[in-house]
Amino acid sequence: MANLLRSAFVIARRDFTATIFSRSFLLFLIGPLFPVLMGVIFGTIGGATMSDAERPTVAVISSDADFHALTAARERLAQAIDPPVLLELRQVAPSGDPAEQRARLLKSSSPPFIAVLEGGLARPHLTGDLKPAAGFVRQLEFLIDEAHRETIAPGSHAPELALTRTTRSVGALTPGRTITGRIGQMVLFLLTILLSGMLLSQLIDEKANKIIEVLAAAVPVDAIFLGKLFAMLAMSLLGIAVWTTAGAATIALVTDRSLSELASPALGWPLFLTLSVVYFMMSYLLLGSVFLGIGGQASTAREVQTLSMPVTMAQVVVFAIAASAVGEPDSARALAAAVFPLSSPFVMIARAAEDSAIWPHLLAIVWQILWVALILRVAARIFRRSVLKSGPSRSIWRRAKA
What we know:
The protein is mainly alpha-helical. The chain folds into 2 domains: 2-30 and 173-401, no CATH class; 54-168, 3-Layer(aba) Sandwich (D-Maltodextrin-Binding Protein, domain 2). The protein has 16 helices and 5 strands. It has a 5-stranded mixed beta sheet with strand order 2-1-3-4-5, sandwiched between helices. Helix 8 runs parallel beside helix 11 (269-297). The chain is elongated, with a radius of gyration of 27 Å.
C-alpha cells in the first residue's frame, strides 16, 4: 500500500505540474463562463416551479366545521389565482396546553409549518414568523373573512386577524433551504461534468504517444489511475478557488448582498460550505473513475465521444432524480438516490441544507470512498488486461474458444 501511494503521488505531481504550467490552463480558467450561464438559465426555469412539498403550510387548530369552511373558501380562491402560490392548510386537533402545542407545531419538520392558526373563525389568531410571509397573511385574512360570511354571519366581516410574531419557524425556513439545496446541486453537477471530462483527453494523449506503456512498466496501473485522478482533482480545486475568489469579488463590487441574506442551511454556512467541497471531491472522484475506465478502453477521440456520451446522459438522468428528491430528504426516493453512488453527493448536499443531522453525511462519505476504490480497481484491471495484455485471461469462455 505504501509503494502504491508513493507511486501515485509521483504520477499526481507530474501531471499536476505539467497541467498548471501549460498554455491551455488559462483557457481552462475562463471555461466556466458558459456553464455558469447555463446554470442561471436552468435555475430560472427550475425556480418557476414549486412542488407540493415546498408549498408553505399553516397548521389550523379548529373544529371540523371551521376547517371545512376554510378549505371551501380556499377552493374558491384557487379558481382565481395560480395553485402554486396558495397556502396549504393542515388541520390539527387541540391537544394539551395550547402554548406547548403551538411551540411544538412551529418546530415541526414533518410537515414544516410556517405559522399556526387558532381561535376558529370567531377569534382568529395567527402565530409565526410573519415578515417573509406577508402575502400569505393576506391570503389567510381573505379566507377567514370569506368563510365567516358563508357560515357564521352571512354578509358580515370576520373579526380582525390577531398576529403574534415569533422567531423564524422551521416551516418558514424550509422554502429558502430548499432553494439553497437546489443551488448546491446545480453548482456541484456543472463543476463535476465540466472538470471530470478532462481525464479522458489526457489519457488518450498519453496512450497515443505510448507514454502510458512506459509508466505502466515503472509503476502499477492502479497507481497511474489514482495519481491521474488526484492530480486532476487538485487542478480542479485550484480552478474552483480562482473562480470563487473572482465571483466573490464581482458580487462585492456589483451588489451589497451576502450569504447572511440567504436562508441559512440546516447545518449552518461553515459546515455546509465544507461539505460542498467534500461532496464535489467525491462526485469528481466517482465520475472521474468511470471516465478513466472509459478512456482506458478508447484509442481515438471519436471512441471517447462514443463511449462517454452514454455516461454523461446517464449522469444527467441521475442528477434529475436527485433534484426531484429535494424537499423530501427522508422519502424513499431520496434514500435510494443517496445509496446509489453516482447520485449520492447530489442528494447529500441538498440534505445538508435541509436537515441538521450530521451522521448521515459521515456514513455517505465513507460509502462513496468505498465505491471510488472499487471503480478504480475494476477500471485498472480491465485496462491492464484489455490494453496492456497482461494478467490472466478475462474469462473461461475465451480460453475454451481458443
